[in-house]
Amino acid sequence: MRIRATVAAVSGALVLSAFAVPAAQAADATPGRTALTSATADGTASAAATLNVTFSKFKVNNGKAVVVGASAKVAVPVTYTLTHAASLDVSEDNFASGPFIYLGTSATSPSKRIISDDPGTCTAASTTVLNCKATLYVRSTGTVLKNANAVTWKAGGLAITANGDTKTQGDLGTVPVRRASQLTADAAPEPVKKGKTITVTGKLSRANWETHKNAGYAGQPVKLQFRKNGSSTYTTVKTIKTSSTGALKTTVTATVDGYFRYSFAGTSTTPAVNATGDFVDVK
Q: CA distances (Å), 272 to each of 158, 169, 205, 221, 222, in order?
């Protein structure tokens, strides 16, 4: 018997909602949500005891921001170390642990929480140390992510035993969560005579986690860049701002064959992105 979405033990009387799918992730956390309780045979609830384990060396998404599209499920790798008493039974029949990310000052009563669908997979480094890895799925299609939540989250760990002892530990690192960005560029006419005008249009958009569609990103500075044919380096020609719909449009004079693209440096909520270069043949 492996501890997964629910654990049934003690002749089936004990039920622990630890790694629920998708409830633990999709629902906003409420105060005390992660303080797990056990249901006894007569239906009464008793508080679970605190488990004496310690999480450390948390690494979420290899230290990179988690970038989530408008309608996406992003697999986020997590590694961590768990230290426990040598006497603790950490076999998969009795023990499970996993990561979560959260917003708020307390890991045990966060305002938002996204928890791993399944327990982590651990290997023993010694009689008291486990090295673990897990996958955290961040979904923009549930009820947790709102546009305002494109901020830096905190990382936490949850451990649980089959008899109901638990440990919730927060402040194990920070995790930037960002709205995915998209950028296009189209240079015309193609081909064009030398000395004539080239018009470069495009659009900067980003994921809207509430409508689950991409929407224009207004009022953002974007660089128009050019790469001469045969070169590997883009140089900035000018900087313009996106319109109220995220649209871009500017003109340049045709000189030599090459590629035009737009480049966005990113913001605190939205990652940097470069459009694919559009080739213009200058006659």
A: 33, 32, 11, 12, 10
Q: How far apart (Å, rounded) are the C-alpha atoms in residues 74 and 259?
A: 32
222, amino acid identity: V
Phi and psi angles of residue 23, each rounded to the nearest 5 degrees, phi first: -55, -45
Select from 31, 149, 170, 148 the least CA-distant residue to 99.
Answer: 170
What is the sign of the dihedral through the CA atoms of 118, 119, 125 and 131? positive
Angle of CA points 143, 145, 150, to nearest 5°: 170
Cβ-Cβ contacts under 8 Å for 134 (sequence gap 6 or more)? 77, 78, 79, 80, 98, 99, 116, 118, 119, 120, 121
Structure tokens at 151: 């901020």
Model pTM greater than 0.90? no
CA distance 126 to 172: 22
**Over the stretch 2-47, which tens digit does the pLDDT of each residue have?**
444 333 332 222 233 445 444 445 444 433 323 333 333 333 444 5
**DSSP 8-state code for residue 25:** H
**What burial class does residue 62 get, using C-beta atoms within 10 Å of its C-beta: 0-12 exposed, 13-18 middle, 19+ buried?**
exposed
Say if CB 3 and CB 92 are below 8 A apart. Answer: yes
Q: CA-CA distance, 22 to 6, in Å (whole number)?
A: 12
Question: How does strand 174-179 pair with strand 66-68?
Answer: parallel
Helix (H) or strand (E) holding 131: strand 129-139
What does the pLDDT look like over 248-264, one tens digit per residue? 999 999 999 999 999 99
Residue with tokens 């913001």: 267
